[in-house]
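Board notes (copied after class):
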Amino acid sequence: MSDIITLVSQLSDDQEAAYLGALRKSLPGEVLLPLRETSAQQRAQSSIAIVANPRPADVARLPNLAWVHSLWAGVEQLVAAWPKDGPPIVRLVDPEMSRTMAEAVLAWTYYLQRDMPTYRLQQTDRQWCQRVYRKPSSMEIGIVGLGTLGTCAAERLVRAGFRVNGWSRTAKNVDGVHVYHGDTGLNDMLTTADIVICLMPLTSDTRGLIDGARIAQMKRGAALINFARGPIIVEAELLDALDRGLLSHAVLDVFDIEPLPLQSRLWEHPRVTILPHISAPTDVHTAASVIAANVSEYRKTGKLPASVDLTRGY
């Protein structure tokens, strides 16, 4: 019996069709089927599942999985519902996503550096007032999280002339970046940054990492960008800091609940820019190529790609 790769998702029909087409093109020698089209025998033959926000009960219908490949870089929802004895999870690590995220980080850092939120408010009030220009070299950027995405973003900011600091839980070396680590290091970095950018994965350790106490450590009038996950920042305490003018602005692409509820105060807050989770969308074709390379290597060597540490959550 030939092996089956099963796609398990809650994507829309159009999205699932797009991924199926790209994956089948990248894996021409494989039999790839969506879960709904599989028989009991085919589900028993499936040793690899490719998943996107799957229902745990659907994954459980595949009893002989060797491993699971996520279509997303973030896997916190998958890990939270994963049984302790479940198959290894491989998250998507796509250079195109890193490039796209670095592009977004640079774009919105420029937005804050050039005082665009203030000019937008001035336009509303019909005010003609020129702000003092700040050079990138005069501004310190603090990146919370120096994984694949954070490191790529930091390097892009360095090339643009910003003074870049970064923080990770353990010591790291990134060219051109002053790296802090540990709890004390995070507080030290926050005190000097003009713009703080969150790029951490969401885990039990990072949930609520940026709370009122940490925001109070930040330079008065600093700005905040969150391109990580909503619950990393305590929303009520962020709003309080914005109301009090402790922070000048927040660019938020991720939220505790998505889509952002219509009644949220964030929608109309003058110091908040809201984005609909668009900073680094998954590219269907490059994602398919990355997954295909991992599957092909596994078929050749029997070696699993690097998998998620379920205790850490990434």
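Comment from the instructor: DSSP finds eleven helices and twelve strands in the chain. The CA atoms of residues 102 and 259 lie 23 Å apart.
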